[in-house]
Amino acid sequence: EVLQNHVLEAQVFHTEFGTGVAILTGAFRFSLATNIDDLKLRRLPEVPGLQQPPGCWAVLSQDRVTVVLLAVGPELFLLDNTSCSSVVRECRSVFPDPLSLPQEKFCEFNSTIRSPPKQMVWLMGECHWLCRTLWWPHSAVGGCRGPRLMGECHWLCGTLWWPHSAVGGCRGPRLMEASQEIFRIASMAPGALLLEAQKEYEKESQKADEYLREIREQQLLPEAVGQCIEAAGYEHEPHTQKSLLRAASFGKCFLDKFPPEGFVRMCQDLRVLNAIRDYQIGIPLTFTQYKQLTIEVLLDR
């Protein structure tokens, strides 16, 4: 079936058995394997009336049970190994089990957006509650580093934020403050001033001294160095990473006792991240994901 109808969509997920993959074929049927190292593709039951890809779907796995939750118009369906069942569209206020579906309404939120969401991700917290983050594409805006796609994103409990795309995690989405502080337009953050000082220094411009003096007069040079190191971890472009690390190294020269361990560790971490993000390996982790995953789990992967 997969060879004849091709793969329309796919999701990779983690289970107790290893790394799993779920696919939606051109026949609008779901199949999944819970361990790609021992590939046994299992076709799930047919969804009644499904004539086009669902609006959104997610794979949920716990205690050796893996199910697919999908939305078809206003209806919500749950697919397991043997059946496809319709789910009542309310949410329970407390989830003792993420796979036990809702009986009571948790909350309602009117986003006032009429178009369907671009993306849905499931977020599981420490108490194993399920939350939903929905993202709508909005518009492209210009910036000092080129155009950036901005979106409007709503979390189930009403938090608003604007990421390029949403990534689910065990502690929910995070805002990368160091990068924003440095790269926002007309930023006067210590890290932004240090980055400009380093660039002017490479041009042999006296402006480098002006920027550096402004930071030192406020006694913010250690903070500026730390901001540049931290921001480098959240950048995916090696060129930007190097610019930030050069700025941090430049600032360290004017500090008597700045501990070098953080700078060295970030250089090592970025070498690993850039290597695994290469298409031949294809594990595009963020810095936060990499730290939470641990190097042992990454090596196992």
UniProtKB/TrEMBL annotation:
Domain spans labelled Vps16 N-terminal: 1-86, 174-265
GO process terms (BP): endosomal transport; intracellular protein transport; vacuole fusion, non-autophagic
GO MF entry, a single one: actin binding
Coiled-coil residues: 194-221
Gene Ontology CC terms: endosome; HOPS complex; lysosomal membrane
Entry-linked InterPro entries: VPS16 (IPR016534), Vps16_N (IPR006926)
Keyword Manganese recorded: no
PANTHER family in UniProt: VACUOLAR PROTEIN SORTING VPS16, VACUOLAR PROTEIN SORTING-ASSOCIATED PROTEIN 16 HOMOLOG
Name of the protein described by the UniProt record: VPS16 protein
UniProt gene name: Vps16_0
